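Sequence only, no structure available. Ideas?
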Amino acid sequence: MELRTLRYFVAVAEELHFGRAAARLHMSQPPLSRAIKLLETEVGAALFDRSSAGVTLTPVGAVLLDEARALLDQADRVRVRVAAAAGDAAITVGILGDSTDPDATRLADAYHRRHPRVEVRIRETDLTDPTCGLHAGLVDVALTRGPFDEAGLTVHELRADPVGALLRADDPLARRDSLKLADLADRRWFVFPEGTDPAWQSYWNGGKTREGPVVRAVQECQQAVLWNGTVGMTLLDHEPAEGLSVVPLIDMPPSRVVAVWNEGDSNPLIRSFVRLATAAYHG
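Reply:
I predicted one. Tokens follow.
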């Protein structure tokens, strides 16, 4: 069995959809389907049950999935160890704003244990660059939040966090159990600078064009509310500064934590990063 074919199989097994798996692998569906058929012939058994209801793993497919993941992980470890022995194993990770997320800490621990000889360079960015330098070629992989311009990038969701309205504690709306965006329609909001990714700006402004003080960092967001009485959005589980309050916004979709890297980049350090991040954020 070729490692490439096993990667194809794992993608289909994890997506349980040939179209999504093909998109994830940056290939068209027909050659992917042919590769899986050839693999089933080589194994001598069906790996997937295909029906109008969708695709599911057979018992044989489930066994192969466990083994294929282990083989691919070992293959990546070999590449990384050889690179480390040659003295050129390094990865640059972009992190957005607040790097104190406990899941990110768990990921850092897991990555260090797995790759103790790999040099990890961290580039922390403010809220004006949600891709953390990927579009500019400054990092290999980013641990960030969507949405943003995904052109040329591969995005893997790790977690979804509910959001709320950030208000002064003495704001009448702070006494509510929950709010809707319409409750904040006539208020001034903190905003990101001109030129910030439009999808990112739109999400954190509740889908509207807003006016208010310009901010670039989490602390600036809090201070803008505290000093000006403006409003904005923040993560519901973030502890607000003294004098501030967070109220759930029930008509806003959650904020997605994602790992993102350049489309087609086959660096095994990135693949390992994404696998370990998935485990850390679902652990």
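The longest helix spans residues 59-85.
Hope that gets you unstuck.
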